Amino acid sequence: MKKNIKIFGIGFLVFLVFLIFSYFVAREHFVQLDFDTTVKMQDNLSRRLDEAFSTFSIIGSFEIVSLLLLILIVFLKKLKGIIILIPYFFLHLIEIFGKTIIDQNNPPFFFLRTEVPFQFPSGYVQPGYSYPSGHSARTAFISLIFLFLIHKSKKINQTQKVVIYSLVLIFDLIMFTSRIYLGEHWSTDVIGGILLGISFAVISLVFT
Q: Which pTM does this prediction carry?
């Protein structure tokens, strides 16, 4: 019980950091930083990455991540694992709420580099502004839960775990970078999404 309270407390603390960060974003303290980060990233990365990053970002869509999460729940082999869907649901409620009240527009059209041949239905949902990034929130959420399950597994040796940890972190880095590089989100959108995803993922660990 004490361990679960501690885990919940850590998740709540990260959520408070998210709220504080969101306040500063709403107050437009990072506008220049956002703009400079996008410009530098697009200037220093090859345009050959447009299609690769665009295709890769599909993995972070609501439909794909939700399917992966259901697979993880089955992997847990515990009925209470289904409760993970509750914080996952609230994560999206807060994402939509943030995009409704925080007046941060998407990057201008001239930054947009996305080249996706199709979109899932969720791609057509535009709740308002751009903060926080849903792709980043979902990626952080499912990655942390997956890493925790790998950490707990007794069937995987330490070397294999290190390899898996590294691959997941590389995956996350590419996903977060792609959202900024493609001009889909500002850097603060991504940071806010990461904090939101981590906070609810940590809270979800209470049920794993």
A: 0.92
